[in-house]
Amino acid sequence: MTMETEEKAAEVEKAATGIRGLDEITRGGLPRGRSVLVSGGPGCGKTLLGLEFLYRGAAELDEPRVFICFEETALELIENVGSFGWDLRELIAEERFFIDHIRVESDEILETGTYDLDALFIRLMSAVQAVGARRIVLDTVESLFASLPNETLLRSELRRLFRWIKDQGLTAIITGESGEKSLTRHGLEEYVSDCVIELTRRTEEEVSTRRLQILKYRGASHETNSYPFLIDKSGFSILPITSAGLEHHVSEELVSTGIPDLDAMFGGKGFYRGSSALISGTAGTGKSSLAARFAQAACRRGERCLYFSLEEAGRQIIRNMRSIGIDRFFDHGYLDPAAQHREQRRAQPPPVSRQIQRPQALQPGQGVRPFRSGHPAGGHLPRPGRGAGRLGPAGPGEEGGP
After folding, report:
1. For a designed S-S bond to 298, which of 142, 179, 228, 375 qualifies (C-beta 3.0 to 4.6 A apart)?
2. Is there a single domain that holds both residue 47 and residue 168?
3. What phi, psi does 354 have (nearest 5°)?
4. Residue 6 forms part of a structural domain
5. Which region among 190-204, 211-225, 338-352 has the lowest average model confidence (pLDDT)?
C-alpha cells in the first residue's frame, strides 16, 4: 500500500455538495455525519451556501434535506432562491425537502430555571424523520443564544448541540455571524465543529469581491488557500485556481494558426490542439488581428470558436477585422455580435480573478450561446482600470446563425 493510498484510506468519509468548485477544494465534499461551521459577515453568502448544499442534494443526488431557519421564514427563503431557478415548492411537495422556521424573539425570552435544548432536539428529530433526511442546515446559531447572559450555560449547550448532531449521524452546516475577535460571536463554535469555512467580503479600490477559505477540516486533507467565488444566476461558483488538475488529455493533433507563414514556423502545421499560446507585444503590433485569424481558421474548418474580448466591443472587433479581410465567419453566422455580453458598465472593473472565473460560471442565457467550443480565443488581458466585455458565437443552425 502506497503512502497516498494509506492517507486516503485514513480520511473521513466525505459527502459531495454539488456546488461548483467546493468539492474540488474540499477534495470530495464535506465530512459525512459531522458538523460544518460556515462563518462570515452580512452579505457573504452563508445562508445561500447552506441552501444550495441542500438543494443540490435533494434535486441532483436524490437525498432528502432539512433546513432550520431562525430568522427568515420558509416563504421568504422559497421566494429568495426562486431567482436562481430553484423550485423548493416542488421538492417540498415530493417530501425531499423540509423547511422549518423556528421563531425566536429575544424580547419574549425570560430565563427561569434550567435552560436546555431538549425541545429543539425533539423538533429537529421530527423534521429529520418527516423526510428521512441525513443532511441538515441550521441558520443561524446565534439566534438560539442571543439573549442568554450565562456564558457557562451557553457554552455547555453549544457543545451539546454539536454532539447531538454527530450522534444522529447528520451531515450539518451551521451558519454563524463573525465576531469582533473570533470567527463567531461566541468564539466556541469553531472549536467544536469538525470543519470550518470562512466567507469574507473584501473591498479593494472600490471593488468588492467575495472569498472562501477552509480553515479547519478534521481527519481529511483539503486546499488551504483563499479562493474567489461568485454568486450568479445559478448559485455559488468557486474558482480553485491553484487546485486545477494536470491530468487532462494531451493531443498530438496540430491545428492551423490561420497564417500559412506562421504555420511554417511551427513545422508547417500550427499549434497542438488543446494547447495555449500567449501573444505578447506592444500596441499596434497585431495581437488582436492574429487572434482573429486563428478564430477564422477554426470557423473555416467548420469548428466552433469562442472569442472573449476584454477591451473592445464585439461590433468594434467585427468592423476592425473586416478592414483586413477577416469577415467570412462574421457574415456566415459563425460568430454572432448580438451575443455580446457586457460584464459591467461602471468605471472600476472586477478583479482579474473574477474575470478569469466568469467563463467557467457562464450558463445558457447569460450572454454566450450554449455550445461546445474547441477553440477559445481572446483579446488583450485587462490592465488595471480597464473594463471587460465578451463576444459569444453561434454556429450554423443555432440562434443567430444562418
Report:
1. 375
2. yes
3. -75, -40
4. no
5. 338-352
